[in-house]
């Protein structure tokens, strides 16, 4: 199984995704600042993985704290959370994870410092395990939506590498394949960072799932030729009305899907749903270094000094989304109602201890 990130006795260990697909190397972070750097530099990426990384970064930072009073420990906790919270703005899982760690701190703050540190480590590990379980549940719900046979297009990487394991969109595909469905994946290359060609193709090949990489501008032609029966992607933030922020280029795929009458599905955990965000216009979109666009493997591809845009995400309006697959079930339009119902707090006894 792919170990995207894990808590170890020596720190938080990450599979370095910037080196894939040619090198499988790991980096171990010993401080929360290092964890913030690996999130920012996309050694680890993908909304759910960023959330778990944030929780582990906080646990690491608090564990390293020299504070001798609960007040000082809380001050350190807040400073650590602030550093982690400034890494990437779009994936709401980051802020969800920080909030959950804050709530854990508040629940155990009357206990001795060593106990608080241990409780935070355990909470981060629990979030790791829960994420895998959520993806498997998404797979169970979503597999029924996949064709018995045919091409399924995905954009970016919403797989094991973008989560604690199994994946959201790729989890749905994995579950469908496990049920015996004969799916052929079309993986959009996903310029400029190439999550599709470098990461999605890498992890699907490891699993022996038939995969064809296409450059992003080929998707329309593939749909027109009847090669695509369904589309499934992940999400970085889903607004209360069902608008979906995901990797730049997702919106283009959704519009093409509508033109060709192909269902466009989104798979994401409830932690990606931001009910405080009324619609997609309120979702902050990360702008990344223009060099990701101007250079490929270190080689300059555009003239010196030309204007460049590099938004990392776009927003797909809810009207293009056939269904949102979550670990608690499938949401359909009107999303204001279906998402609010699914995202309602888990019943007593089901809550995190
Ligand atoms: O910039 P990235 O690689 O972090 O963007 C990742 C995506 O857009 C994914 O589709 C999304 O986070 C869902 S991952 C399960």
Automatic annotation (TrEMBL):
Catalytic activity: 5-(methylsulfanyl)-alpha-D-ribose 1-phosphate = 5-(methylsulfanyl)-D-ribulose 1-phosphate
UniProt EC number: 5.3.1.23
Pathway terms, separated by semicolons: Amino-acid biosynthesis; L-methionine biosynthesis via salvage pathway; L-methionine from S-methyl-5-thio-alpha-D-ribose 1-phosphate: step 1/6
This protein's UniProt keywords: Amino-acid biosynthesis, Isomerase, Methionine biosynthesis
Pfam families: IF-2B
Active site (record annotation): 236
Annotated binding of substrate, by residue: 45-47, 88, 195, 246-247
TM segment ranges: none
Top-level division of the source organism's lineage: Bacteria
The keyword Endoplasmic reticulum appears for this protein: no
UniProt record, GO biological process: L-methionine salvage from methylthioadenosine
Family designation: Belongs to the EIF-2B alpha/beta/delta subunits family. MtnA subfamily.
Protein name (record): Methylthioribose-1-phosphate isomerase
Native organism taxonomy: Bacteria, Pseudomonadati, Acidobacteriota, Terriglobia, Terriglobales
């Amino acid at each position: 199984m792919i170990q995207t990130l894990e808590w170890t006795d020596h720190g938080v260990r990450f599979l370095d995704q910037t080196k894939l697909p040619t090198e499988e190397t790991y980096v171990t972070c010993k401080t929360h600042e290092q964890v913030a750097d690996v999130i920012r530099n996309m050694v680890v990426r993908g909304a759910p993985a960023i959330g778990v990384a944030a929780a582990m970064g906080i646990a690491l930072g608090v564990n390293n704290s020299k504070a001798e009073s609960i007040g000082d420990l809380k001050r350190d906790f807040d400073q650590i959370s602030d550093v982690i919270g400034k890494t990437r703005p779009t994936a709401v899982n980051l802020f969800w994870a920080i909030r959950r760690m804050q709530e854990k701190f508040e629940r155990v703050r009357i206990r001795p410092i060593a106990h608080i540190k241990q409780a935070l480590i355990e909470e981060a590990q629990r979030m790791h395990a829960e994420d895998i379980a959520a993806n498997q549940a998404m797979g169970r719900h979503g597999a029924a939506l996949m064709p018995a046979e045919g091409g399924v297009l995905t954009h970016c990487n919403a797989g094991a590498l973008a989560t604690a394991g199994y994946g959201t969109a790729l989890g749905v595909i994995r579950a469908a394949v496990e049920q015996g469905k004969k799916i052929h994946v079309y993986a959009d290359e996903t310029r400029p960072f190439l999550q599709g060609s470098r990461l999605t193709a890498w992890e699907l090949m490891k699993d022996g799932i038939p995969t064809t990489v296409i450059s992003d501008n080929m998707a329309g032609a593939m749909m027109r030729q009847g090669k695509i029966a369904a589309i499934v992607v992940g999400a970085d933030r889903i607004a209360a009305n069902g608008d979906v922020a995901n990797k730049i280029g997702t919106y283009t795929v959704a519009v093409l899907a509508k033109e060709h009458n192909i269902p466009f599905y989104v798979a994401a955990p409830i932690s990606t749903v931001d009910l405080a965000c009324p619609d997609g216009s309120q979702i902050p979109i990360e702008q990344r270094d223009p060099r990701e666009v101007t250079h490929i493997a270190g080689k300059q591809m555009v003239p010196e000094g030309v204007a460049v845009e590099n938004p990392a995400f776009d927003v797909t309006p809810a009207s293009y989304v056939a269904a949102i697959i979550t670990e608690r079930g499938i949401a359909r339009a009107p999303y204001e109602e279906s998402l609010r119902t699914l995202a309602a707090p888990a019943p007593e006894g089901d809550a995190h201890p």
